[in-house]
Amino acid sequence: MNTIVLDLTKHKGKAVILLKFPYNSQLIALTRQLPEALWSSTLKAWYIPYTNDSVRAITTLFSGAALVDDLSVIKQLENAKKAPPDIKNYILSTEAQVAIGKFENFLGSRRYSSNTISTYTDALKTFLKFYSDKAIADITNEDVISFNIKYILANNYSASYQSQVVNSTRYIYLNEPFVFLGRYNGVLAYPTHLSLLCTFCSSVPAFAVSLPSVHTSR
Protein backbone atom coordinates (compact mmCIF):
# COMPACT_ATOMS: atom_id res chain seq x y z
CA MET A 1 0.00 0.00 0.00
CA ASN A 2 1.19 3.53 -0.78
CA THR A 3 2.34 5.82 2.03
CA ILE A 4 1.64 9.54 2.33
CA VAL A 5 4.08 11.40 4.55
CA LEU A 6 2.70 14.54 6.19
CA ASP A 7 4.82 17.50 7.16
CA LEU A 8 4.01 20.81 8.83
CA THR A 9 5.69 23.89 7.41
CA LYS A 10 5.12 27.49 6.40
CA HIS A 11 4.35 28.45 2.83
CA LYS A 12 3.62 32.00 1.69
CA GLY A 13 3.51 33.07 5.32
CA LYS A 14 0.90 30.51 6.40
CA ALA A 15 1.07 27.17 8.19
CA VAL A 16 0.35 24.30 5.80
CA ILE A 17 0.31 20.52 5.81
CA LEU A 18 2.38 18.93 3.05
CA LEU A 19 1.31 15.62 1.53
CA LYS A 20 4.36 13.84 0.15
CA PHE A 21 4.00 10.75 -2.04
CA PRO A 22 5.30 9.42 -5.37
CA TYR A 23 3.22 10.25 -8.41
CA ASN A 24 -0.05 8.32 -8.25
CA SER A 25 -3.12 9.42 -10.19
CA GLN A 26 -5.52 7.86 -7.66
CA LEU A 27 -3.90 9.63 -4.72
CA ILE A 28 -3.82 12.91 -6.64
CA ALA A 29 -7.54 12.58 -7.39
CA LEU A 30 -8.25 12.03 -3.71
CA THR A 31 -5.98 14.91 -2.69
CA ARG A 32 -7.93 17.28 -4.92
CA GLN A 33 -10.99 16.53 -2.78
CA LEU A 34 -9.38 18.20 0.22
CA PRO A 35 -10.52 21.82 0.74
CA GLU A 36 -8.05 24.32 -0.75
CA ALA A 37 -5.62 21.57 -1.83
CA LEU A 38 -2.92 22.97 -4.11
CA TRP A 39 0.26 21.76 -5.77
CA SER A 40 3.47 23.64 -5.01
CA SER A 41 6.21 23.41 -7.60
CA THR A 42 8.57 25.02 -5.08
CA LEU A 43 7.93 22.46 -2.35
CA LYS A 44 7.26 19.69 -4.88
CA ALA A 45 4.27 18.51 -2.88
CA TRP A 46 0.55 18.96 -2.45
CA TYR A 47 -0.51 21.04 0.54
CA ILE A 48 -3.56 22.28 2.41
CA PRO A 49 -3.92 25.02 5.05
CA TYR A 50 -3.19 23.76 8.55
CA THR A 51 -6.14 23.56 10.95
CA ASN A 52 -6.81 21.52 14.07
CA ASP A 53 -8.70 19.02 11.90
CA SER A 54 -6.26 18.83 8.97
CA VAL A 55 -4.57 15.55 9.91
CA ARG A 56 -7.84 13.86 10.79
CA ALA A 57 -9.41 14.96 7.48
CA ILE A 58 -6.45 13.57 5.51
CA THR A 59 -6.41 10.29 7.43
CA THR A 60 -10.14 9.82 6.91
CA LEU A 61 -10.00 10.61 3.19
CA PHE A 62 -7.15 8.20 2.45
CA SER A 63 -8.42 5.37 4.66
CA GLY A 64 -8.07 2.14 2.65
CA ALA A 65 -6.18 3.87 -0.18
CA ALA A 66 -2.89 4.71 1.53
CA LEU A 67 -1.08 4.73 4.87
CA VAL A 68 -0.79 8.20 6.37
CA ASP A 69 2.46 8.89 8.24
CA ASP A 70 1.74 11.83 10.55
CA LEU A 71 4.60 11.30 13.04
CA SER A 72 6.50 14.38 11.86
CA VAL A 73 3.47 16.63 12.34
CA ILE A 74 2.74 15.22 15.79
CA LYS A 75 6.35 15.78 16.86
CA GLN A 76 6.37 19.35 15.53
CA LEU A 77 3.13 20.19 17.34
CA GLU A 78 4.48 18.76 20.59
CA ASN A 79 7.67 20.81 20.26
CA ALA A 80 5.63 23.93 19.50
CA LYS A 81 3.73 23.51 22.78
CA LYS A 82 7.03 23.45 24.68
CA ALA A 83 8.50 26.43 22.86
CA PRO A 84 8.32 29.90 24.48
CA PRO A 85 5.59 32.10 23.01
CA ASP A 86 6.46 34.40 20.13
CA ILE A 87 5.12 37.68 21.48
CA LYS A 88 6.45 40.11 18.87
CA ASN A 89 3.02 40.38 17.25
CA TYR A 90 1.09 40.63 20.52
CA ILE A 91 -0.82 43.91 20.84
CA LEU A 92 -0.32 46.15 23.85
CA SER A 93 -3.46 47.34 25.62
CA THR A 94 -4.16 51.05 25.89
CA GLU A 95 -3.39 50.83 29.61
CA ALA A 96 -0.01 49.24 28.86
CA GLN A 97 0.84 51.87 26.25
CA VAL A 98 0.05 54.64 28.75
CA ALA A 99 2.19 52.95 31.41
CA ILE A 100 5.11 52.60 29.00
CA GLY A 101 4.77 56.24 27.97
CA LYS A 102 4.90 57.32 31.62
CA PHE A 103 7.91 55.09 32.21
CA GLU A 104 9.72 56.61 29.25
CA ASN A 105 8.95 60.13 30.53
CA PHE A 106 10.10 59.10 34.00
CA LEU A 107 13.48 57.94 32.69
CA GLY A 108 13.78 61.05 30.54
CA SER A 109 13.10 63.29 33.53
CA ARG A 110 15.96 61.53 35.35
CA ARG A 111 18.22 62.38 32.40
CA TYR A 112 19.04 58.80 31.43
CA SER A 113 20.66 58.35 28.02
CA SER A 114 18.52 57.49 25.01
CA ASN A 115 20.09 54.01 24.88
CA THR A 116 19.18 53.31 28.51
CA ILE A 117 15.63 54.57 27.98
CA SER A 118 15.24 52.38 24.91
CA THR A 119 16.63 49.30 26.68
CA TYR A 120 14.35 49.55 29.70
CA THR A 121 11.19 50.58 27.85
CA ASP A 122 11.68 47.65 25.44
CA ALA A 123 12.02 45.33 28.44
CA LEU A 124 8.79 46.66 29.91
CA LYS A 125 7.00 46.32 26.56
CA THR A 126 8.03 42.68 26.36
CA PHE A 127 6.74 41.95 29.85
CA LEU A 128 3.41 43.72 29.30
CA LYS A 129 2.97 42.05 25.90
CA PHE A 130 3.44 38.67 27.56
CA TYR A 131 0.48 39.54 29.80
CA SER A 132 -1.49 41.49 27.21
CA ASP A 133 -4.65 39.68 28.34
CA LYS A 134 -4.34 41.02 31.91
CA ALA A 135 -4.84 44.40 33.52
CA ILE A 136 -1.60 45.68 35.04
CA ALA A 137 -3.09 45.65 38.55
CA ASP A 138 -3.96 41.96 38.11
CA ILE A 139 -0.38 40.85 37.41
CA THR A 140 0.82 38.87 40.42
CA ASN A 141 4.05 37.59 41.93
CA GLU A 142 3.41 34.23 40.32
CA ASP A 143 3.01 35.92 36.92
CA VAL A 144 6.41 37.58 37.21
CA ILE A 145 8.08 34.32 38.13
CA SER A 146 6.18 32.51 35.37
CA PHE A 147 7.42 35.11 32.86
CA ASN A 148 10.97 34.48 34.03
CA ILE A 149 10.63 30.72 33.56
CA LYS A 150 8.49 30.55 30.43
CA TYR A 151 10.04 33.43 28.52
CA ILE A 152 13.42 34.61 29.81
CA LEU A 153 14.87 31.24 30.79
CA ALA A 154 13.11 29.37 27.97
CA ASN A 155 14.77 31.71 25.47
CA ASN A 156 18.10 31.47 27.33
CA TYR A 157 18.28 35.24 27.71
CA SER A 158 21.06 36.76 29.80
CA ALA A 159 21.02 37.63 33.49
CA SER A 160 21.40 41.30 32.58
CA TYR A 161 18.19 41.08 30.53
CA GLN A 162 16.47 39.54 33.56
CA SER A 163 17.47 42.52 35.67
CA GLN A 164 16.27 44.97 33.00
CA VAL A 165 12.83 43.39 32.93
CA VAL A 166 12.46 43.18 36.70
CA ASN A 167 13.67 46.74 37.28
CA SER A 168 11.24 47.94 34.63
CA THR A 169 8.32 46.13 36.27
CA ARG A 170 9.36 47.56 39.63
CA TYR A 171 8.66 51.04 38.25
CA ILE A 172 5.05 50.10 37.57
CA TYR A 173 4.48 49.21 41.21
CA LEU A 174 6.78 51.70 42.91
CA ASN A 175 5.76 54.81 40.99
CA GLU A 176 2.16 54.42 39.92
CA PRO A 177 -0.30 56.25 42.22
CA PHE A 178 -2.97 53.53 42.10
CA VAL A 179 -0.75 51.18 44.14
CA PHE A 180 -0.53 51.84 47.87
CA LEU A 181 3.01 51.64 49.17
CA GLY A 182 4.14 51.71 52.76
CA ARG A 183 7.40 52.22 54.54
CA TYR A 184 8.70 50.10 57.37
CA ASN A 185 11.63 51.58 59.30
CA GLY A 186 12.22 53.91 56.35
CA VAL A 187 12.35 51.11 53.75
CA LEU A 188 10.06 51.42 50.76
CA ALA A 189 7.91 48.29 50.53
CA TYR A 190 6.16 46.58 47.66
CA PRO A 191 2.39 46.34 47.90
CA THR A 192 1.26 43.21 49.75
CA HIS A 193 0.40 41.22 46.63
CA LEU A 194 3.94 41.80 45.34
CA SER A 195 5.83 40.95 48.51
CA LEU A 196 7.03 37.68 46.96
CA LEU A 197 8.41 39.59 44.00
CA CYS A 198 10.42 41.77 46.37
CA THR A 199 11.87 38.66 48.02
CA PHE A 200 12.46 37.04 44.64
CA CYS A 201 14.33 40.06 43.29
CA SER A 202 16.49 40.29 46.38
CA SER A 203 17.34 36.59 46.39
CA VAL A 204 18.57 36.41 42.80
CA PRO A 205 21.83 38.37 42.28
CA ALA A 206 20.97 39.19 38.67
CA PHE A 207 17.74 40.83 39.83
CA ALA A 208 19.28 42.89 42.61
CA VAL A 209 20.63 45.36 40.10
CA SER A 210 19.36 48.92 40.02
CA LEU A 211 19.14 51.17 37.01
CA PRO A 212 22.56 52.27 35.77
CA SER A 213 24.09 55.55 36.81
CA VAL A 214 22.73 58.54 34.98
CA HIS A 215 24.73 59.61 31.95
CA THR A 216 23.50 62.83 30.44
CA SER A 217 23.51 62.86 26.64
CA ARG A 218 25.50 65.72 25.19
Describe the structure.
The protein is of the alpha+beta class and 218 residues long. Helices cover 45% and strands 15% of the residues. It is built from 8 helices and 7 strands. The chain has a 5-stranded mixed β-sheet. α5 crosses α7 and α6 (141-153) packs across α8. The longest helix is centred in the middle third of the chain and has 17 residues, at 114-130.
Question: Could you give a quick summary of the protein structure above?
Answer:
It is built from eight helices and seven strands, in the order ββαββαβαααααββα. With 218 residues, the protein is α+β, with helices and mostly antiparallel strands.
Task: Compile the SSE list and pairings.
Blueprint: E1 2-11, E2 14-20, H1 25-31, E3 38-40, E4 45-49, H2 54-61, E5 66-69, H3 71-82, H4 94-109, H5 114-130, H6 141-153, H7 159-175, E6 183-184, E7 187-188, H8 195-203
Parallel strand pairs: 1-5
Antiparallel strand pairs: 1-2, 2-4, 3-4, 6-7
Helix pairs in contact: 4-5, 5-7, 6-8
Report the span from N to C terminus: 75 Å
Question: Quick one: how many beta strands?
Answer: 7
Strand order of the largest sheet: 3-4-2-1-5
Parts with pLDDT < 50 across at least 5 consecutive residues = 176-218
SSE succession = EEHEEHEHHHHHEEH
Largest sheet: 5 strands, mixed
Question: Regarding quaternary structure, how should these chains be classified?
Answer: single chain
Shape: elongated
- What is the arithmetic mean of pLDDT? 78
Helix content: 40-55%
CA radius of gyration is 25 Å
Strand percentage: 15-25%
Computed structural class: alpha+beta
Query: Given the structure, what is the number of helices?
Result: 8
